[in-house]
Amino acid sequence: MALSAKQLAFVDEYMVDFNAAQAAIRAGYNPKTVNDYASVLRNRPDINAEISRRQQERSQQCALNKAQVIQEIARLAFNDPRQAFDANGALLPVQDWPDSLAACVASVKVLECKTLDGITVGEVKEIRFWDKGKQLELASRHLGLLKDRLEVSTPVAQLIKSARERLRDR
Fold it and tell me: Which GO terms describe its biological process (predicted)?
């Protein structure tokens, strides 16, 4: 069954920010009952299928896939700033940086050092990299090294019984 023009407008708007309530409002649904509409629309199989189709299409257009995202996280997490310098410790020109290093740089600042007469006597270069800790956290989560939930291996009844015994022994 084909989606109505208003339902297609909802899908269009949903793809902007993935906020069902705001998408419903922008698509022309009544703001007073938007939460009802948003929930119903988002749970319809035909609308979900269209959203999935568009997400897949968008990923293909961007040539984006999970492997690339994980590869980029790894690149940012394990970058080596020493690659920016030559054997004498001098900063290499940006065009000579390897691609793996250049992708990790968030910003570069160059400050000129001048005398009171305004004569440039040198410069200070600052390189800021993307947050390595955040990238390591993302990589760790991907590998299952970090858990966001508590995992209990002992049955709850046994834990309660043990706690009661400890209280009794006091």
Answer: chromosome organization
**DSSP 3-state of 127:** strand
CA dist 84 and 125 (Å) reads 12
pTM above 0.70, yes or no: no
**Domain spans of the chain?**
5-62, 70-134
Residue 76 has pLDDT above 90, yes or no: no
DSSP secondary structure string for all residues of 35-98: HHHHHHHHT-HHHHHHHHHHHHHHHHHHT--HHHHHHHHHHHHT--GGGGB-TTSPBPPGGGS-
Contact status, residue 45 vs residue 2, Cβ threshold 8 Å = no
C-alpha–C-alpha distance, residues 167 and 170, integer Å: 6
Token pair belonging to 120: 């440039």
- Between 156 and 82, the higher pLDDT residue: 82
- Residue 80 dihedral angles phi and psi, to the nearest 5°: -120, 105
Fold of 5-62: Arc Repressor Mutant, subunit A (1.10.10)
Tokens of residue 75, six digits: 């690149």
